[in-house]
Amino acid sequence: MSPPVIDEPALHGARSGLRAFGLPRFVSRGASLLFSLLLTLFGLLFVTFLIARVVPVDPVLAIVGDRATQAQYDAARVSLGLDQPLPVQFVRYLGDVVTGDLGRSNLTSRPVVEDIASAFPATLELATLATLIGVLIGVPAGVVSAVHQGRWQDQAIRVVGLLGYSMPVFWLGLIALLVFYGQLGWVGGPGRLDVSYELAYEFDVTPVTGSILIDSALSGAWDVFRNALSHLILPALVLGYFSLAYISRMTRSFMLEQLSQDYVTTARVKGVSERRVVWVHALGNAMVPLVTVIALSYAALLEGSVLTETVFAWPGLGLYITQALFAADFNAVLGGTLVIGAVFVVLNILSDLVYTLVDPRAR
Question: Within 10 A of 288 (CB to CB), how many other CB atoms are there?
């Protein structure tokens, strides 16, 4: 029996097709990102565990109070597992977090997971709108600044960005409240809703996402929607101003680099319009690193809106962590810190994935 004849060109073509499909490389990169994500989250868990053990506050005393007897103190310490060696405590802490148990808040007497689930949508709503403001204004401002480098447009945009970096957010928030709410009455005051609309929100709006704007729009409660928007717009503008300053500065830097490349000169020589050269070719290439900048800016707003939420009494995760910190409620503080850190890590990983989609060279 003669051996089978192997069609070498066909075999080579099949192998080339598999390589072009990129499945092995895709699987390898996915496994690498997953391993990096798990390792980073493990490190985050370890750091939060150490913070809980080295802070000069006794978690047992925060629970039982300073008038508890020694027997009550010892019983609470045993129930929390603090009488065990540190490695045993860490394993127990790791198991609790994996199962979604972040402990119980001493401030609200509720599970920390439930508190975070009710507070995080407010922070997400505020940070998302602030990021949209920063992107929609900051990116065009950075492009204009780069195109008119050294001219009055560039100087004006850079001054606005410098002010955004320099002014403390709590001071700007207080001034904005004084002027636009206290004096002019153009926007709503602190909080997410007026007191008169809280009952309407409770009875007329079906909670779906936790965002008052989205839920009230889905329920058709447009009066609640307008009132919620009047409360949201001012803190979002204040927070978005700082995002705008950072994004416009980075956009300007990336655009200056792209406008000095040879392909821009070649396009101009070929007669391509200046608008297309700037807004399509140069900005298209600048968007590759800018995606990562926007993602990290969004993550920074999610974790860094503590002062804004405190000034505007915005019931988000930042205000929740601040109140828990003043009450020495470390289950709530560490739970909120862990969630914010996890969101930061996930957004960083997602920005890497989007980076590979935007830039074919990264694949």
Answer: 18
H or E stretch covering 17: helix 8-21
Q: What is the pLDDT of residues 50-79, one digit of tens each?
A: 877 777 677 777 677 777 787 877 887 787
Residue spans in the chain of domains classed CATH 1.10.3720.10: 112-362
Residues 17-26: contacts with CB under 8 Å, at least 24 apart: 22/363, 25/363
The whole-model pTM stands at 0.81
Q: Structure tokens of 317?
A: 């995760």
CA angle 345, 350, 351 (to 5 degrees): 95
**Residue, of 303 and 116, whose pLDDT is higher:** 116
Q: Which architecture characterizes domain 112-362 according to CATH?
A: Orthogonal Bundle (1.10)
CA–CA separation, 125 and 223 (whole Å): 18
H-type alpha helices, 167-261? 169-176, 195-204, 212-219, 222-259
Q: What is the DSSP string of 77-105?
A: HHHTTTTS-HHHHHHHHHHHHHTT---B-
DSSP 37-62: HHHHHHHHHHHHHHHHHHSSS-HHHH
d(CA 192, CA 224): 10
Q: Which long-range contacts (CB under 8 A, 24 or more apart) does 19-22 make?
A: 22/363
Task: Specify the higher pLDDT residue, 9 or 63.
Answer: 63
Per the prediction, the chain carries an average pLDDT of 82
What is the average pLDDT across 333-346?
83
Q: What is the pLDDT of residues 251-281, one digit of tens each?
A: 999 999 999 899 988 988 888 888 999 998 8
Torsion of CA 164, 177, 329, 94, to 10 degrees: -40
